[in-house]
Amino acid sequence: WTGRPMPQGLPLGGLAGLWLAGRCAGFFPGILPSWLYMMVDAAFMPVLAVAVYRALRGVPRHRHNLAFPVILLAMTVANVTSHLMVRTSTGVSMGTEGMLYLVLLMITVMGGRVIPGFTLGKFPEGRTRVWPWLDRIAIGSLPVVMLADLAGAPVPMVAMLCLAAAMVHGSRLVGWHTPEMWRFPLVWLLHVGYGWMVLGFIMKAGSILGFVPPLLFRHAFTAGTIGGVIFAMICRVSLGHTGRSLRLPGFVPWAMIMIGVVPVLRVLLPWVAPMQQLLWIKLSGAAWIVAFGVYIVYYAPMLCQPRADGRPG
Question: How many domains is the chain built from?
Fold first, then answer.
């Protein structure tokens, strides 16, 4: 999009290897020193931030995208904080909670362009509307809630901020909606995933005030928002960036339905039928594994071959 080269070949392989090293290092907690694990695990995001910044630097029309390297650097701080809090036996709450908010912030920034853009691209005559002023408020709501929550602000204040964030993000989602989108899984799963952020903030406020069981809101954010948006994005991007038409192969539409059902099993059913919570956890985990297994079966061959249209990449 910027016309600048991104890492490819050996640099891209090195970046992927750096990410993989951080994932693998966690399997050897008794072998690697904790400080080495922290360094390996934390190295990927700042390197990625530099790569993204270099692509954006000096391109005025993409100045707004500089938010992404800033978020990646903030994620590095949250990651290191989690490691340090484990080493000092003070828990990981601040680091992990901060990281969760930052991932939601990235989805908020990215989703404001991708979700209505994909919706309008597929349904140009639809009712999708975008309000830039509302986008700015939605983006700003995440740091406000995060800082209030992590700083230990009064409970009623945090709950009210969560409800306000839910209203803002919900209004944004209503503007993006068009009835035709439910015919196209690549679009509706993005909307559903973002909708779980709205419900997650409502549930967090209810949890703070004692109306909702604790921790369920985290699964709304993770299994619902993060899982749904990521799955929809990798299914679409893997087609477009390998030079293929946006036609979902084989059983992938069913896998998208399964990803859409996962947060219902993991969040709503444990709330209304807590006595069967273990069953809901097993079913949601099984649906998650099957859905991503379907993705691997259909998309791994695409990602391991040259682009179908002969272009580089």
Answer: 2
CA dist 245 and 70 (Å) reads 33
Assess whether 84 and 106 both reside in one domain.
no
State whether 82 and 199 are in the same domain. no
Angle at 243 between CA 188 and CA 21, to 5 degrees: 80
Q: Is the domain of 82 the same as that of 110?
A: no
Residues 150 and 257 in one domain: yes
Q: Tell me the C-alpha distance between 112 and 130, whole Å.
A: 8
What is the Cα 221 distance to its own chain's centre? 9
Which residue bears the tokens 């853009």? 117
Assess whether 224 and 123 both reside in one domain.
Answer: yes
Shared domain for 258 and 288, answered yes or no, is: yes
Can you tell me the distance from the alpha carbon of 80 to that of 73, in angstroms, rounded to the nearest whole number?
11
Given the structure tokens 């989690």, which residue do they identify?
82
Exposed e or buried b per residue across 122-153, where buried means at least 16 C-beta atoms within 10 angstroms of its C-beta: bbeebebebeeebbebbeebbeebbebbbeee
Q: Per-residue confidence of the chain (313 residues) as pLDDT tens digits?
A: 666 777 888 888 999 999 999 999 888 877 888 888 899 999 999 999 999 998 888 777 777 888 999 999 999 999 999 988 876 666 557 899 999 999 999 999 999 999 999 999 999 988 999 999 999 999 999 999 999 999 999 999 999 999 999 999 999 999 999 999 999 999 999 999 999 999 999 999 999 999 999 889 999 999 999 999 999 999 999 999 899 998 999 999 999 999 999 999 999 999 999 999 999 999 999 999 999 999 999 999 999 988 888 877 6
Domain that holds residue 24: 1-91
Q: Cα(178)–Cα(125) distance, rounded to whole angstroms?
A: 9
Residue that is last in its domain, among 72, 91, 110: 91
Nearest to 303 by CA among 261, 241, 256: 241
User: Of the candidates 66, 91, 116, which is a domain's last residue?
Assistant: 91
